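User: Working on a comparison across species. This one is 3-hydroxyacyl-CoA dehydrogenase from Geoglobus ahangari. Can you predict its structure so I can line it up against the others?
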Amino acid sequence: MKVEDVKVVGVLGAGTMGAGIAQVCAMAGFEVVLRDIEDRFLERGLNNIRKSLEKFAAKGKLSEDVETIMGRIKPTTKLEDLADVDLVIEAIIENMEVKKETFRQLNEIVKREDAIFASNTSTLSITEMAAVTRKPENFVGIHFMNPVPVMKGVEIVRGLLTSDETLEFAVEFTKKLGKEPVVCRDSPGFISNRILMPWINEGIWVLYEGVATKEEIDRGMRLFTNVPMGPLELADLIGLDICLAAIETLHRELGDKYRPCPLLKQMVQAGLLGRKTGRGFYDYTQK
Ligand code: 3HC
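Assistant: Here's the predicted structure for 3-hydroxyacyl-CoA dehydrogenase from Geoglobus ahangari:
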């Protein structure tokens, strides 16, 4: 399949990443079918898309009006509504069994024989997901960075059976979205989270051991390494549940050096997931 052949993109999951992916696809002129399991998740996702588009519009960074772009996104709770998509990008919960079950169902639903199936997973195996699809050679990882509308980098992950054509398609498609693709092969955490998640986890260990306050850890790392965010504020942006799932995968697959900090586990158990729930390492409820 060629990028020019793509008219409709199916996006699974209207959470932080799924909504961002739907937004950038719609901004690039694609029709989008955005599916989540409950209406309230779709409403929240569409609200976030609108807010982000309004930010761009206020700065004169949109070539079309907000409503035209919003009009390209069709929200639905029915997986069957993805029957006519050319490309599916999955951004649902980071659970291998749930993802595989969803792709199994899509095998029966998506009509186009040469449709491309992609996953935005942050750490899970592209090869394993591909194995349950009808054409593993048409499966690829397209891993966006948060916040999707702003971040240029996208990781393109080649599964064991991903074809050269599918890899090329993913590279060209993400360029069409205005992104800069970086290619790697399937391996736990790919490039991005293999390196980023231990950095975040280590920041949490440093806090847990009382080496410094959270503010000093973040301010320090911003100053010492010139990154826009320190590890704890970045964990709040990404979502602590996502960080924990990622570091647990790395721990399971690559060994003890990736052991999750107990404080991270406890914060997830307490529902302190970061910006999306209003509280994580910092409090966002007053802002
Ligand atoms: N939509 C539209 N515009 C947005 C936006 C959104 N969702 N979020 C931020 N912006 C805009 C702001 O309006 C602002 O625009 P301006 O410069 O024209 O005024 C600009 O982006 C910068 O935002 P802020 O002034 O609020 O704050 P910062 O300068 O700190 O930038 C940031 C915010 C872009 C998030 C920056 O802090 C950053 O790059 N942080 C690091 C992000 C990062 O590392 N992401 C990767 C995480 S890893 C990942 O996602 C992988 C996954 O698998 C876990």
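For your comparison, note: The longest strand covers residues 139-144.

User: Helpful, thanks.
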